[in-house]
Amino acid sequence: MPLDYSRDGRINTAWQRASMKTAFVLATFFCGVHGFLVPGIPSASVARTNSGRIVTKMAEAVGEEPFVPDMDRRKLMNTILLGSVGLNVAGLAVPYIAFFVPRTGGGAGGGLAAKDALGDDVTVQGWLSTHQAGDRSLVQGLKGDATYLIVKEDKTIENYGLNAVCTHLGCVVPWNKAESKFICPCHGSQYDKTGKVVRGPAPLSLALAHVKESDGKVLLTPWTETDFRTDTAPWWK
């Protein structure tokens, strides 16, 4: 604002008043923003919350201080919100987790019930009605591994099963009926009809599992004693 001189050379009083008013307004605004109290202004007050925020109010114009949640309240609300969201997510996750956990249904005599391709318990009667003597077909066995059930010549199920996982690199080994061997399609390892390794690169025989009947169902239990094919301790124990 340019200086305004009166006719006698003195600064115009009206200009002085306007300049002082402008400076006063600017000073009041600056102090309010930065949290300073302005001396001589009883109608203005500045409050600092627990969280460090500055709240400026006009005490005479507004009857009460505006509500500003302090840090403790906000922490509590955040905790409640996160807790409720966490419970919902956990509730949704349970069915998906359960889907990947193998079922471990057993029988009255103990052991794990063998499962067919549909995930149903294998029954002795049902299995023998569809599998002939000399048959070696897969069921889901211990730990979910593919396991061969063997049908003997007298049309009963053999008292041991064979884990179908090749001991070389873990391929599932199919039964070759024409050659009466298990022949791995990955690297050519071969096992005889009892699962004993007869050709590498597989270093070990197929793992064994006990097979028994309970309440008409086929049950599997771990084989922990001597391997009858090699007369050695079981390597899979």
Automatic annotation (TrEMBL):
Q: Which family does it belong to?
A: Belongs to the Rieske iron-sulfur protein family.
Chain segments annotated as transmembrane: 21-41, 80-101
The EC number(s) this enzyme carries: 7.1.1.6
Catalytic EC class: translocase
Swiss-Prot/TrEMBL cofactor(s): [2Fe-2S] cluster
Which cell locations does it reside in?
Membrane; Thylakoid
A Pfam family found in this protein is Rieske
Cellular component GO terms, alphabetically? membrane; thylakoid
Q: Which HAMAP family match?
A: Cytb6_f_Rieske
Q: Kindly list the organism's lineage.
A: Eukaryota, Sar, Stramenopiles, Ochrophyta, Eustigmatophyceae
Annotated Rieske domain ranges read 124-220
| Topology of this chain in the membrane | Single-pass membrane protein
Q: Which GO terms describe its molecular function?
A: 2 iron, 2 sulfur cluster binding; metal ion binding; plastoquinol--plastocyanin reductase activity
Q: Which UniProt keywords apply?
A: 2Fe-2S, Disulfide bond, Electron transport, Iron, Iron-sulfur, Membrane, Metal-binding, Translocase, Transmembrane, Transmembrane helix, Transport
Q: Which InterPro entries match?
A: Cyt_b6_f_Rieske, Rieske_2Fe-2S, Rieske_2Fe-2S_sf, Rieske_Fe-S_prot, Rieske_Fe-S_prot_C, TM_PetC
According to UniProt, the name of this protein is: plastoquinol--plastocyanin reductase
